[in-house]
User: Fold this.
Amino acid sequence: MLTGGVDPLQLVEEFDSPIYVYDTAIIKRQFKRMKSAFGVKQFKINYACKALTNINILKLLRELGSGIDCVSIQEVQLAIHAGFKPHDIMFTPNGVSLEEIELALGYGVRINIDNISILEQMGHAHPNVPVGIRINPHVFAGGNAKISVGHIDSKFGISIHQMPHVLKVIEATGQTIDGIHMHTGSDILDSDVFLYAAEILLNVARDFKDLTYVDFGSGFKVPYKQNDISTDVEDFGEKITARFNEFCEKYGRDLTLIFEPGKYLVSESGYFLVKVNVVKSTPASLFAGIDSGMNHLIRPMFYDSYHRIENISQPNGRPRIYTVVGYICETDTFGVNRKISEIREGDILCFHNAGAYCFSMASNYNSRFRPAEVMVHEGEAYLIRKRETMDDLMRNQVEVKILEKATI
Ligand SMILES: *Cc1c(COP(=O)(O)O)cnc(C)c1O
Assistant:
């Protein structure tokens, strides 16, 4: 059954709709699968927590043995709160100030720098703090084996062509580079494409003598549609392991191989349960309007991403073709021309792959409350975030007196 063996309709009864539900067994399965795919001596998974930052999910991953990848000082603080040790926290921000990096330094976490300006400033202010650097390998991996070299205009990372400059800076400041990192954002659908990017990174790594780790970022893909291809982690793991071990031998030391998956670990664990408010027929479409919108799940509108939608109230009804839309005063379409078992008003729909970048990207647009979050663990359901209330919407608003009638 969906939602970890607990009846999803019962969860809606208990916690109302809409709700995000996370099945911890799936996170565990994904973590273990990834961990066992790599045979290097020192291997580390740093969960990219921006995918889903509920503190209970962070704790679960910590218990499983994961490190954590944070992109803001607030994520670092959440990680500390969840009990991660500073050396298991990697701070990988983009375009932040030296002040924010210094705050992270205060916690003793690992720092990964993505531009030469901050590298210099760090070198002047903290020459004794080892840092990692984020490299932009300028590799663009498409959906097939074709490789095109692109991403020249990406805001992320330090270009591989700027390594001579980086080497000059660290020579002048005396700082130590302890890690080399990349995160291209592309999907690893073909191991060979990724190995090509890895080769570029390892080429750069050779020139830095004090490394303790090489971090290949993420790109692990999970299936969204029923016949989707996902990353073959076992095949990929085998190939990377062989190449990495060979590199370490030549380098003269065992380095830690790090990956920082977000989606791979949590996407499939999540279900988003919503209620159908209105079924509406127009000359061109049959709409199902739900009690949610782009304020709760923005990926379909933002990235054109596909989330499978099921009618769990009537799983065996006659399939009809629906366009599923939200209640926000924008065109917030979740899916067009979806074959879904006949929907009646009041039915509960389930969105799949709702673990990564769903709740974490939710907002209060249209002054709506963000949904509750529920975690299912070993057959029990736990409320792990309350639904918001009017107080949450009002909390930081400051009503100034000058707008009272008498003073205008
Ligand atoms: C977002 C992010 C990731 C995770 O990407 P996924 O596609 O969710 O696996 C990893 N590393 C960094 C630096 C990121 O910003």
